[in-house]
Amino acid sequence: MPVVQGMTHRWSEDQPWTMETYERTNGYQALRKALAMEPDAIIQMVKDSGLRGRGGAGFPTGMKWGFIPQGDGKPHYVVVNADEGEPGTCQDAPLMMIDPHSLIEGIVIASYAIRCNHAFIYLRGELVQAGRRLDRAIKEAYAKGYLGKNVMGTGFDCELTLHRGAGAYICGEETALLDSLEGYRGQPRLRPPFPAIHGLYGAPTVVNNVETIATVPFIVLNGVDWFRQWGTEKSPGTKIFSVSGHVNKPGNYEIPLGTTAREVIYDIAGGIPGGRALKAWTPGGSSTPLLTAEHLDTAMDFEGVGAAGSLLGTAAVMVMDDTTCIVKAVLRMTEFYAHESCGKCTPCREGTYWMVQVLERLERGDGTEADLQTLLDTCDNIFGRSFCALGDGATSPIVSSIKYFRDEYIAHVEQAGCPFAVERVPV
Amino acid sequence: MTDWTTVRADAEAIVARYPKSRSALLPMLHLVQSVEGYVSSEGVALCADVLGLTKAEVGAVATFYTMYKRRPCGEWLVSVCTNLSCQLRGGEEIYARLEDKLGLHHDETDAEGRFTLEHAECLAACDYAPVVTVNYEFYDCQTVQSAEALVDALARGERPAPTRGESLRTFKEIERELAGFVDEGGA
To answer: Which of A100, A228, A250, A401 has the fewest beta carbons closer than 10 A?
Structure first.
């Protein structure tokens, strides 16, 4: 079974979140190595590793770091996006609770590479236990000289501020995150200019996801070839997959990219309770188009999932068995987007609201076949016409479910009600 | 009566964490919630005064984020995730039962100020679905029965240990942590 412990080897240690455990298991050795290198050589190493952003978009991390203009006389910032909240996605919260020092070590390395002297973690407010562990780990790192003035006696300064949000999924969008970190409503900015040029306080800024940054120390310490032993040419390495919903063993699993969905759902997560049939699954959270049992041989990497008509996203696999009403599931996902739409742009603000009304009507049995076209037309007016990716994501469950489960929508219309409306015992 | 002098000193300590003062606004709003259990008009005024903003500017931010409460929150904020992974494993049934049991609907607080109930958007614990949090501490893999037992214990004045966390804090205590004041008086 292809579960590995490359980046998660400390997860089975006793109290892995302490400095003592971290240092005993090669902690901060990557930083020692990095500080002896030229900053540009670290950026090149991350480029050579092929590491791609783990927060959903899959953008090459080294390239992002390379976009920061050097010698521009401005401060530079590293901001970690720890605003985890995409439905189905739950790997960053445990990573920060279990192994907070790997994130801190990655932050110091990234800061040294892009010449940043003040980094930030934007933590989703609700994650209080992760916040507590990070807070203590940061204090430990300051006390040991891994953070603060003159890091490890090298003359490099690196401050780190933990900043807690206040409940808004949109702040996972990197420019909304920056506005929120500056003390404003978390609404996305028009791009370009991109954060690499005009980010936090108008200065060049790298915004990276938790898992991305926490992977960096492992690459620096063990080398590019070690990282590339897993995954594919274009999607190298491993990734933590969050598997949830109708599976026997929900959990977070570190898996080489390129592993098939069948292995993930059946071999690793133990298949579906009661041996029931697979109906639908998301490859990377609710913003990624649904796939079905036909797509079980999809390679779970950026290219493979793309070829199947969806997106790897955050590798958040939500599994729905054949007792699931797809209209109800899509309604619930759409209510999420309606609640979380920041209201800045009309297509997303109005579109998500009205799509909830139409889906409610269909699920209740008051819908018509014309409602399907209304939904698709609304999605057309949101996708690509919204300010940020939240709007695009809101169309994914609707468009994909109508593509694969049109008959089920029609059954709701013809039976004037939900065919699944029976008392069902939760697993 | 609230002693705003000490709150002001804490607010200024928050400002010192940032290169630009306005970045302190979100933690500062958590701080004022830790004093009164919600973002009161006095709290808004304090933030505005410390940061040199108008009350309207502070209010615009406070009303954007769901964790800032506009009315006094109960001592125990019970949040039930009803997003897809939790819904598939019974989150809606748990929420419905707690609505009945507590006699509360979404974002309502009982007359005694003990419980506030809410259905929450994805709480990033999908592998432990269905999940309930109390003051943002995780109670994993809940059932209707276990969620009822949790609320019963709270009503008896107990503080059941979270599944992944430490001791359960009150809403005001946890809001102080959210303002960045952790382990005061020792871990």
So the answer is: A228
